[in-house]
Structure formats: structure tokens, C-alpha cells
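Sat 14:20. Reprocessing the chain from the morning session after the first attempt stalled halfway. Input below, unchanged.
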Amino acid sequence: MDSSPLLALPVVLALELGAAEPGQRRTLSRDEAAELAAHVARDLQALVPAATEARLALAGALFDSVELLRPGFPVWATLDELARRVPRGHLENVVAFGTHEGRMPAQPLEPDPAYADGPMRLLPITLLAPEPLAGTLGEQLELDLVGRGEAGQRTADWLIRTLGVPLEHARYLSRNDLLALTCVQYEHVNLAPLWSVLETALLTPYREEATLSARGLPLRYAGGMVQVQSPAQWLAESHDSDRAHAFAGIVFELRQYAALLDAHALPLRLAPADGADAQARDGYLLEIVGTADPAYQAPVLVAHEAPGLGVVAVTAAQRGEGGRARVLAHGYPLQSRALGALVSTLAERFGIAPDLHALGRIQLDADGHLGAPDTPLH
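Finished this time. C-alpha cells:
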């Protein structure tokens, strides 16, 4: 290999696994990773002969697509960095990284057990090619892998023996192929708007992207995060005939988006509006819209509930003049475990006990906005 700068061409070995027991293996040892890398090198050189001239690096770890498709592509970036440290010409231009004493050589190469049960597992690979070769090799990878990138039989047999699980399919994909596959999967489950902001964050993070969710909730990517409109504000602008049902649907959709954005390591924030103090905490979103008025009764916390979703929002309110509720804040638990923290935060904010009054419904005021009962709660 000459002294030209090495450019990274990201590839993945995608494994479709059969039924496996919980706790299946997520990593390979150093020796196992080296054995697999040798098989992979032979496969890729047979598929794309020019790959012989590139350095192949493999991480002996099985990931979900959400772990690989994160801003900055940290798994591939770490693999590239480790591979570049190995002197050129060493190990016949194939290098593999596996566990030593149960640990991978860098934290980004450690798969998260939270995503370990998916039917497709992905082994990250990178080809480091001299600049004059990288353009041609990259084009060949894009053309050839998607059409005929089946792993060789020896590679498949080795994976079955080593992982100890049935293997239904094993094929090589470029990172662009993986992006396209994930796009199709998200579109299939009506999450195309989520993909549009995620794709921008992955490929053109310096750009901004605005879109609407399938139910009409505005989303905007900018500056490395996604901002979403407050569900209460969305409700105030809604013309839906069944506003309570529509609000429950928006929160359900928001929870889907929040879970996937978190899995892709893309922060979600509330877009500030109308002077509200918008906050994002671990597992919930919060907007403070007013301060407690000592002329009115002490604030109370009420839980808006919807069938199948549990608590969809928590409102802090005071009984104001004429008994009408005066809203101080709305919070949205995006994960069930976050409800307690949300209630504690609101209680501390307004200096009250963390007592949550369950309504058994979504409470709307006379204008159809998210509110609280006008009558005393006991």
C-alpha cells in the first residue's frame, strides 16, 4: 500500500438470526474476531477484487442498526481510528478487534444489551483505501454488495458454530445500503417524518430540517437536536372533533419518536413557545407556563389518562377566581419509569407535596385546551 492518505469505506455484515435464547452472544474474543476477519477478507475480495488493495478492519461485536446509525457514526469512527494505529503492512493488511478479559478495546464498540434481541445483528467493517483507490472501490462496493453480497459458505458455517444460533441469512452491505434499508423499514411503519430528521442528522448535520409527524406534530432538526412542538400547544391549535382522543394519539406518537430518537442518540427537546420555559429531562418533557399566585389556592397536580397509555400528561394548576383552574405547567412522561421523577420535579418547583390526582380521563377546559378540573380535588 502506498503513502497516500487512507479513506474509510464503511461496510457491515448483516446477520438474520433464527430463534435464539435470551442472552445470546454480543461480542467475539480477539482470536475469534481474527478468524472471522480472515473469512470476511476472502469474501470481499471475491465479490470486489479491488478490496485486496485496501486494509480491512472488523469489530467483533454484534449491533442493532440504531447503534450504528447515530450522528457521527461513532462505532465506525472508533473502528477507523483503531485500525489506523496499526502499522501498514502488519497482519497482512487485515486487522480485527475483539474482547480481552470480556471487554472490547473501546467503549463505542461495546453493544448495548438493551438492543440485543433484534432479529438482525450487524458486524461493523471498514475498508481503509488509499485516496486514488477509494473512489473506484467505493463505487464497486455500492454496486456489487447490494446485488450479490452474500457471505461465503465457510463464513456462514463459522458464524453458526461460533455464535451457536441458527443463521437464516448473512450478507454484506455498504453503509448506504443500511441507511436505505432502515429508511424503508421506518416508512413501512408510518415513521417517514422521523427518518427525514434522522437522515439529516446523520448525513448533513449542518443543515436544518422541518417536517410534520403523521398526526401533524411539527418537528425540526437543528444544531444536533430535534425540537418538537408542545402537545398542549398542538391541542390548542387542533380542530379535531374528538380533541381528547386526538391528544392521546399525539402523545402516543411522541413516545414512539422519543424512543427511537433516544436509541439513535439524537436529543429531543420541546420547542419553546409563548414565553414558556421548555425543559427536557431523562424520560420526560416539561413546560412551565406560569408561576404560582399566592392569592389563589395552593397548586395541585393532576394526571391526564388515556386507555392503554396510562398517564399521558401531568398538569400543575391552581384554582383561580370563580373556581376556574389556572394552569402553571404541563409535563409529558415519555417513559413509564419517568412519571415519578416528573411529579417530584413539579412538586419541588411549586413547593407542594408530590401528590398526583388521577383523573381517569383527559381534562379539557371550556376552550378545548389541556386543563384541570374547576372543582376541588380530594
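The mean pLDDT is 92.
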